[in-house]
Amino acid sequence: MSKPIDYDAPRRPAVDVEDDSLEELKARNSAPQSATVDLDEADAAENFELPGADLSGEELTVAVVPMQTDEFRCTRCYLVHHRSQLAAQPDGRQVCRECS
Questions:
Q1: 19 domain residue, yes or no
Q2: Annotated region Disordered: where (predicted)?
């Protein structure tokens, strides 16, 4: 029987400056850098909306599709489901499998 693996544990112990040799530090420093560009925090923050922001000037456009013939509306959660999700109810109400 094998020992269970803790995937949340760090894969390598914490690096101590005293343990690393000068050659290891130079090799790590000369490693190729990634091609990603560091973003300025102020520039990145401009694209985020804060909760409770005034959205009165915004207009949302959503295409509403009518309920199809092979769909039903659950009488408990009020979501539209496919007929394959219909659970049999003795009282005749249309209830989805998740709510039954």
A1: no
A2: 1-20
- What letter does residue 71 receive in the DSSP assignment? E
The phi, psi pair for 22, rounded to 5°, reads -65, -35
Q: What is the pLDDT of residues 55-98, one digit of tens each?
A: 788 888 889 899 999 999 999 999 999 999 999 888 889 999 99
CB 74 within 8 A of CB 95: yes
| DSSP states along 26-40 | HHHHTSPPPSPPPPP
Q: Which position has the higher pLDDT, 5 or 44?
A: 5
Mean pLDDT along residues 4-22: 66
**Total domain count for the chain?**
1
Domain that holds residue 78: 66-100
Residues 6+ apart with CB under 8 A from 79: 73, 96
Reference 81, options 91, 71, 94; nearest CA is 71
